[in-house]
Structure formats: C-alpha cells, structure tokens
Amino acid sequence: MSTASTRLPEGRYGRSSDERADRTLKVAGAALGALLLAVMAFFAFHYVGQNKISAEVISFDLSDDSVKVKLAVEKDAGASGYCTVRSQAENGAEVGRADFRFTGDTTRITEVVTLRTTAPATTAELLGCHAD
Predict the structure, then answer these.
(1) Chain segment 12-54, per-residue pLDDT in tens
(2) Under a CB-based contact definition with an 8 Å cutoff, are residues 123 and 85 in contact?
(3) How many Cα atoms sit within 13 Å of 96 on the Cβ side?
(4) Is 57 left (phi over 0), alpha (psi -120 to 50) or beta?
(5) Any idea what DSSP says for residue 21?
(6) b/e for 16-36, b at 16 or more Cβ within 10 A?
(7) How many angstroms separate the CA atoms of 116 and 66, rounded?
C-alpha cells in the first residue's frame, strides 16, 4: 500500500505564504537599512560641516604648578570659539582643565596657553573645540 502525499503539487497554486513573507521581510529590511544609512550620513555631514574650529596640541612644557601648551588652531575666518585643554597627573587624576578662547579674522592661530594645575602634571590633552 502506498500513502497519499499531503503536499500540494509544486507550481500549481502560486507562491506559498512563507515565500511572500520572506520577500516582505527582505523589502522591509532593505528599506530600514537605507533609512539608517541616510540618518547616519545626515548626522555625519552635520557634524563635519558645522565644526568651524579644529585644533591640535603641538607641544607642552611641564612645571610644578602649570603646563604651557602650544596649540595650533584652524578655523573659519571671523569664527570665534573656545578649546578645552586638560592635564593629568602620573596616576591619571585630572589636575587641571581650562577653556581658551580664540577670535579674529585669521584662519590659523598658533598660540601658547598656560594651564594652571593643582599638582605636578605629566601630560596635556586637547578635549575639543567648539564654535560660538
């Protein structure tokens, strides 16, 4: 005796509901992925495009109660803002932090700023710059 097959003949009654669900999930996933990429691109462009001031620490000179930091600042002409610099002790504790303002029409400024510290420092670090 043979047993009757309970499966429908292939190709006779159209797609199964599993195939339709798979296609719907693929389309929805692709749309959400494209939306996520668009949002990331928007925020990346906004961050890079709106940052009018950038800087770097060229050198620093340590003493017992201060750190002299040589900063190179690049900015748009006429832009003003500030850069935050901090200093740490040998054990990693923060011993000084200050904001230094930059204004003027020049696009590149190299300036030595003095950061007062509460204990002997071992490093100077630029935390970031922000336009007004």
Answers:
(1) 666 666 777 788 899 999 999 999 999 999 988 877 666 578 8
(2) no
(3) 29
(4) beta
(5) H
(6) eeeeeeeeeeeeeeeeeeeee
(7) 4
**How many angstroms separate the CA atoms of 106 and 18, rounded?**
65
CA atoms within 13 A on the CB side of 93: 6
Residues 6+ apart with CB under 8 A from 91: none
Q: What is the pTM of this model?
A: 0.60
Amino acid letter, residue 35: L
Of 99, 94, 90, the C-alpha closest to 117 is 94
Kindly state the tokens that stand for 24: 């719907």
Largest Cα–Cα distance in the chain? 99
